[in-house]
Amino acid sequence: MNMPDPQAFATTWMNQFTDPSAWQGWLNLPAAGGMQAAAANPLAGVFKDFNVTIAPAKLDTLRQDYLQKAGRLWQDFIVGKTPQLQDKRFSSSEWTATPFAAITAASYLLNSEFMVALADAVEAGPRERQKIRFTVQQMVDAMSPANFLATNPEAQAKLIESKGESLTRGLQNMLEDLRKGRISQTDESAFEVGKNVGTSAGQVVYENDLFQLIQYSPATPTVRARPLLMIPPCINKFYILDLQPENSLVRYVVEQGNTVFMVSWRNPDKSMANLSWDDYVERGAIEAIRVTREISNQDKIHVFGFCVGGTIAASALAVLAARDQQPAASLSLLTTLLDFSDTGVLEVFIDEDQVARREASLAKGGIMPGRDLATTFSALRPNDLVWNYVQQNYLKGKVPPAFDLLYWNADSTNLPGPMFCWYLRNTYLENKLRVPGQLTVCGVPVDLGRIEAPVFVYGSKEDHIVPWPAAFASMNLLNPKKPKANRFVLGASGHIAGVINPASKGKRSYWVNDKLNEKKGRKGPLSPDEWFAGAQENKGSWWPEWARFLQENGGEEVPAPTAFGNAQYQPTEPAPGRYVKARAD
């Protein structure tokens, strides 16, 4: 490979910033300059779309900072000093083996830092700034030299080492993914639902056109009288809670002496195109509560909700409270939003225009494809969930290793259009669920404060889908007159990895605060910061904390059930049932 002359290379690039006319052409955000400015500045179109500018003084400060760092970088390059690449994408030795590869990566990192700084410097409101930052970060991540064969020395080395086979395999991998309509994140041939994931023993004891209800086999001779009903999110399949025996939350709570029931949502097809949020609450959660109570012969049961499943579960209990029914012995909410004031980075996808477009196409009937939902969530972490696999699968021709969680992640579910649109507008966009009486669900006004049950709320510290302070906000809505009935536990890691943290492995940590339930000296609940300031960190999994909560509210010990269902609700097929096996694609 012919190396470019370092001095000429550096001079050409630096002239973009030392020549005032070139600089202004690059940074005329694009009030002046039109298409020429947009071509010179990759951010021009973004800033034009949002109609934002940057204060001249701030712009000049960013320019000077960039010039200083770029000058030092190019001086080091000219004298042969290898730059430090503090980014895992460039951690391989190939990136520093040649000056050209090293300067390519270092220049990219510097330019990325500058582009993000420009995005952060725009004069705009918080929502607009977040959207601009998200858009720019997507561009920055896509521009990485690691994503292209011509600038990825690891892929080039693999190409030479394999005598071209890596490129052939990479093209085959890409064509296969194009056929599937998604990027492969794991070896999907290694898993089968019911065979080596979703394997906890049990039987389907009830079904309608919306869900199947699974009752799991007991693992102890006695159980607590009050059973546990688990309501997972309908935007994913339930077996995230029952992956393999060593990381199954279902298996764990069964082994703790609980009779466990699971809602397995049906993967919607065209026959379900008109289902609403009310259907998921009434014919889903409320029906599951009714059947679980009848099978267990208990007036009160534990109700569990994970993510959107928690929003559905709390809505169902609020509807029942409006009907003067209190069937919950306890309510457990894992990474759940009830107050949608802080929806994290997902906020970039929620505004009046975007919701209105969805309503125009889906609100009167239709299916929201699971593939579209999966793409949205992948966009939240593009380096981990998109570009990493482009590099490994396509550029290097590798087959991704088998990983149960990523197999589940690729097993998408559709959503009925009317249900999806109602959920977007009334929760994410207008945040009505938190306001007593603001929403009517299943024909009654809902008030979360009317739910009478001890509450266990869990949040994950690094959750980018449900920020933990947003999960904590449920503490202010539930049991408003009895705050001591609420318990909050904060776990390490993210939305999924924080929840699926087996107690047997003793990994990560969690935080609890048993000293404070109210602000000292004045009424009102704690803020998240106040709670965390007094919290104690504990090593290991938070699962035992939840198990103790269930035990405290589970009633007396009774002999474990010896049969599934009852005379009215007979088992029809083994767990995990057929609904969970239907694929969206």
UniProtKB/TrEMBL annotation:
<dbReference type="InterPro" id="IPR029058">
    <property type="entry name" value="AB_hydrolase_fold"/>
</dbReference>
<dbReference type="InterPro" id="IPR051321">
    <property type="entry name" value="PHA/PHB_synthase"/>
</dbReference>
<feature type="domain" description="Poly-beta-hydroxybutyrate polymerase N-terminal">
    <location>
        <begin position="86"/>
        <end position="253"/>
    </location>
</feature>
<dbReference type="Pfam" id="PF07167">
    <property type="entry name" value="PhaC_N"/>
</dbReference>
<dbReference type="InterPro" id="IPR010963">
    <property type="entry name" value="PHA_synth_I"/>
</dbReference>
<dbReference type="GO" id="GO:0005737">
    <property type="term" value="C:cytoplasm"/>
</dbReference>
<dbReference type="GO" id="GO:0042619">
    <property type="term" value="P:poly-hydroxybutyrate biosynthetic process"/>
</dbReference>
<dbReference type="InterPro" id="IPR010941">
    <property type="entry name" value="PhaC_N"/>
</dbReference>
<feature type="region of interest" description="Disordered">
    <location>
        <begin position="554"/>
        <end position="585"/>
    </location>
</feature>
<keyword id="KW-0012">Acyltransferase</keyword>
<keyword id="KW-0808">Transferase</keyword>
<dbReference type="GO" id="GO:0016746">
    <property type="term" value="F:acyltransferase activity"/>
</dbReference>
<keyword id="KW-0963">Cytoplasm</keyword>
<protein>
    <submittedName>
        <fullName>Class I poly(R)-hydroxyalkanoic acid synthase</fullName>
    </submittedName>
</protein>
